[in-house]
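re the bet — no i am not wrong, look at it urself. input seq straight from the record:
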Amino acid sequence: MRKLDLAFVRNQFPAFFEPPLEALSFFENAGGSYICAPVLDRLARFHHQRKVQPYGSFEASRLGGAEMDEARTRIAALLNVGGDELHFGPSTSQNTYVLAQAFGEMLGRGDAIVVTNQDHEANSGAWWRLARRGIEIREWQVDPQTGALDPVALAGLLDDGKVRLVCFPHCSNILGEINPVTDLCTMARESGAWSCVDGVSYAPHGFADVSALGADIYLFSSYKTYGPHLGVMVIRRALAGTLPAQGHDFNAGDITKRFTPAGPDHAQIAAATGMADYVDLLHERHFGEPGQPAVSAAERAWDVHGLMRGHEMRITAPLLDFLAARNDIRLLGPSDALVRAPTVSLLHRRPGAELAEALEPYGIMAGGGDFYAVRLLRALGIDPAHGVLRLSFTHYTSQADVERLMAALDAVL
């Protein structure tokens, strides 16, 4: 496996060279990542040169619309889906809410939806509200000791043929455990249900091949994948044509506008293309060789995915070993870096937010609280008000950052 050129990576993120940040180690990436330079460059250009109503005949308007279209085309290509299957919204929570309204119109009494208590509230709360319309909501519950989801338990919820939709996370924003998405989507499909996968906590560690996963709906937040503050939503074409439109009536015939009641910021959509630029930069740096055959955007994304995951696993393993050896904390999720994302949460006698604050003098930026995963914390016997300390990093985190973190934890715990 090729090794990530970390110096090259960090040079793509201006935040590392800003005086207020350059001396600190950032471990709250699950809340929002640093923005890469290609995104910032595109955002600045749009605001300086294209900040007019797009899709008009004059040049600034025409170019603005073209840049927005480019974002749809290139992000869709990274995910290996059609451009008309990609939708931008202001956030993943808002996108899920719009989806829930569509399913609420289409489904009725006698239909059921499966949700988990492992999810961030974005992929459960909106679905639970549909119970008010008579739709049955079934909860796929985690193991109270490990927090893991058992596929056998899902099979039991699907056995009567009433379930129309199964909602679950690619990985938990607390546990970091990566779920077997392809297998779970296959189970849902074979039972006659659609699948809705929350990829918010996985996407920062490599863009997924949504077609290979088999998900009917896939959601993530671009502000956690080095981009602007948007929610990105894939709805496969067959399902999108079935669901009732939620946008303006006169746009119902345009599949790209059916689930956009109010369009998000034009500049941010155009700037999202910078995420694809960044993937291409990493691919050229690590895989670009003279005479090498051209590969597709999805293949480039998957190559970069492997680079990111390889680096993350190498630097996560020492932290997991360090935490697993302590008897004064409870490490949540697997202790094996191979089966989890580098989102590491721990329970201590001191509240999570208090621990995060205590780490600050050591140059560690971390988060503490419930992270909108209240249902999961309660299932694990943890008071959400007490919360957990969450240490989340990504491929631009260095081994030196992790060593600094462990020294700080040793002092604070």
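see?? The longest strand covers residues 163-169. told u. also The chain has a mean pLDDT of 96. so pay up
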